[in-house]
Amino acid sequence: MPIIDQRVTWRKTEERLAEETDPVLRRNLELLLQHQQAEATLDMERLMATVSENARYETFGDEGSVVIGKPAVQKFYEDFVASGAHKLQFETDRLIVDRRGILTEGVMRMAWPGQTLLAQGVEVDDPDAYYLYEARMAVLWPIGEDGLFIGEDTYVGGNGFAGIADRKIDPSDIVLYRPVAA
What we know:
This protein has five helices and nine strands, in the order E-H-H-H-E-E-H-E-E-H-E-E-E-E. By secondary structure, the protein is α+β, with helices and mostly antiparallel strands.
């Protein structure tokens, strides 16, 4: 069984969509599904189509950060892609949706390239290998009047980087999502 399978990220979203009948809640879940899949495929146009002009992304925790405005959010994603750490799986075990937002909670697993970790001051034995980041995470996805995400507020339990140099993973343990061409 792979350590990271990008398709796991939206499994809970698809399960909830299969049973949801409320049109507004369905719209919100479809927005989340588009966002999750576009992030996995690095489709910046589809990804940014889910984000409001006035978005505010905030990370809460030891090393919190704030990103304000759609252009800054796009740069956040571009920098994330450039880091090479975009091979991730967010295994959601709790998903709550209402008319103005979504909450997802679960375990985040990310394959961090050794080169990127070295650049951040983390000593690893193989700069060409991937290393496993793992932490419990909750994400609040508020939705604005325009029907788009006005935020992605992330709460992280624990430090997924603690001991990361000891968690080398084989590339065969990473399953990337490849959408079927229409």
